[in-house]
Amino acid sequence: MSWVPEIEMEYGRARTVAQTALIALMHWHGNQLPPDPAIPEVGEAFKVYVGSRPVPGGGHPLFMDLCVAACERQWNKAPALPEGTREEQAVYLLKWLRKHGDLTSLKFNGKEYDPAEFTD
After folding, report:
1. Are 75 and 2 in contact (CB under 8 A)?
2. Which residues, at least 6 apart from 7, have a Cβ–Cβ distance to it below 8 Å?
3. What is the pTM of this model?
4. Residue 16: which residues within 8 A CB-CB, separation 6 or more?
5. What is the pLDDT of residues 76-86, one digit of tens each?
């Protein structure tokens, strides 16, 4: 199934429209990390900045575990990811974040997701 998620968060970089749920989850996870000291808060135009630490992408074997750990660290509870593809797990985690976490809006293919539909 094709998911085109759009997420809004309570704080930080507030909005993204991603091609897949994994990319939306990468955006959320990046927002959970502390600022990189190698990158200035306000940079110069047309200058390339290289971060000082590696950040795993959606294809990394530990990425989903890191997202679950970020939930545990922030809210003292974490979802048990269902069996399935990484994309299905990312969709489940985005829905969990909409109900329990800091996502204020979650849309799939332009349709607002109702957190009351989520059963955990």
Report:
1. no
2. 15, 16, 18, 24, 27, 28, 94, 103, 105, 106, 107
3. 0.80
4. 6, 7, 24, 27
5. 999 999 999 99
d(CA 51, CA 36): 7
The per-residue pLDDT for range 11-29, each reduced to its tens digit, is 554 566 677 888 888 888 8
62 Cβ neighbours under 8 A, 6+ residues apart: 56
- What the block records as the tokens of 7 is 């997420």
* Residue 106 contacts residue 98 (beta carbons within 8 Å): yes
* Token couple for 70: 């970020």
